[in-house]
């Protein structure tokens, strides 16, 4: 069923949260501009961080996601790019970087959700810590460093960054996820995978992401919920380091394959010292003025806990069904 109407979102940030975001963005003005770093020889030993990018037939945005990993200030990582039965040039794009830390693996068939390639990446991973990145999302260069600092210094089992959810032009969709309430992480709210880092112990105890057709929560949300129930400790960096261009907000994006938004953000991060401050001012403009934030309306499930319903609606929106 195609999405033909929109609803207004009312998840506005408080004045205190906006001031926090604006204040934390100032220090990035003085950081050196990011540089792409290519490692030609295989590093000795095991990596500190395993980065997993699940992907499916979006090689143009995949190239930019990989770029945002390679310019990280924390360089002790391996990058596992796992295709969900890709039939385009994603493998060639991945290998084109020529970095010895990158490994490509393609599943023999398409599973319909990132959980299958994520699970393949988890099985391949060797790092002490594991981080995830959507193939159409972009990391700020300090992303891994701020996550590591938070997870080690707390200490915690799972660290999350702040993630800006960016909707199409004209929707005013600029939501920031990852700000915890005063009582700590709220397990009911899902943390975007592109902002997560977890210790290997979390994966070893919780296990794989579950198939979306067997659960009513999204697999990434179910994984986080189970981690919370197991008593793992969560910490937020309170730093905005992820820019997410949610495909469920962009009709037929897997057919039309747009890439201009990711390209623009990559270039702005590279060239503008004031990038984060300007981005936060744009978020504040929407939230302080209570501008109408529009999001697609999806059909309700037959029952509240219908397995796989939400993912199926997202797939239709993206042009995959």
Low-confidence stretches: none
Assembly of the depicted chains: single chain
- How many separate domains make up the residues? 1
Average pLDDT number: 95
User: Which percent bin holds the helix content?
Assistant: 25-40%
Task: Characterize the biggest β-sheet.
Answer: 9 strands, mixed
* SSE arrangement, N to C: EHEHEHEHEEHEEEHHEHHHEH
What is the gyration radius calculated from CA atoms?
19 Å
Number of beta strands:
11
First and last CA, distance: 9 Å
Q: Tell me the fraction of residues in β-strands, as a range.
A: 15-25%
CATH topology: Spore Coat Polysaccharide Biosynthesis Protein SpsA, Chain A
Total helix count?
11
The CATH class name reads Alpha Beta
CATH superfamily: Spore Coat Polysaccharide Biosynthesis Protein SpsA, Chain A
Structural class: alpha/beta
Q: Give the second-level CATH assignment, the architecture.
A: Alpha-Beta Complex
Shape by Cα distribution = globular
């Amino acid at each position: 069923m195609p999405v033909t109407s929109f609803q207004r979102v009312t998840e506005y940030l408080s004045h205190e949260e906006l001031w926090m975001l604006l204040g934390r963005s100032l220090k990035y003005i003085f950081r050196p501009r990011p540089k792409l770093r290519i490692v030609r020889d295989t590093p000795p030993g095991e990596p500190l961080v395993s980065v997993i990018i699940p992907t499916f037939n979006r090689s143009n945005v995949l190239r930019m996601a990989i770029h945002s990993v390679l310019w990280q200030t924390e360089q002790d990582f391996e990058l596992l790019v796992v295709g969900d039965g890709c039939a385009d040039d994603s493998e060639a794009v991945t290998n084109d970087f020529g970095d010895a830390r990158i490994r490509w693996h393609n599943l023999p068939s398409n599973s319909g959700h990132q959980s299958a390639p994520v699970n393949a990446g988890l099985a391949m991973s060797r790092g002490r810590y594991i981080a995830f990145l959507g193939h159409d999302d972009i990391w700020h260069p300090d992303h891994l460093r701020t996550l590591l600092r938070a997870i080690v210094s707390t200490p915690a089992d799972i660290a999350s960054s702040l993630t800006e959810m960016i909707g199409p032009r004209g929707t005013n969709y600029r939501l920031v996820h990852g700000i915890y309430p005063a009582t700590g992480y709220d397990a009911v709210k899902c943390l975007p995978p592109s902002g997560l880092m977890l210790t290997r112990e979390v994966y070893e105890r919780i296990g794989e992401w579950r198939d979306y057709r067997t659960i009513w929560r999204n697999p990434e949300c179910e994984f986080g919920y189970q981690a919370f129930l197991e008593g793992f400790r969560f910490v937020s960096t309170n730093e905005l380091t992820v820019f997410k261009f949610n495909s469920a907000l962009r009709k037929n994006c897997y057919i039309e394959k747009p890439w201009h938004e990711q390209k623009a953000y990559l270039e702005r991060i590279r060239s503008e010292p004031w990038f984060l401050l300007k981005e936060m001012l744009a978020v504040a403009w929407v939230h302080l003025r209570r501008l109408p934030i529009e999001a697609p309306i999806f059909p309700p499930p037959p029952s509240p806990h219908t397995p796989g319903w939400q993912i199926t609606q997202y797939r239709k929106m993206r042009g995959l069904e």
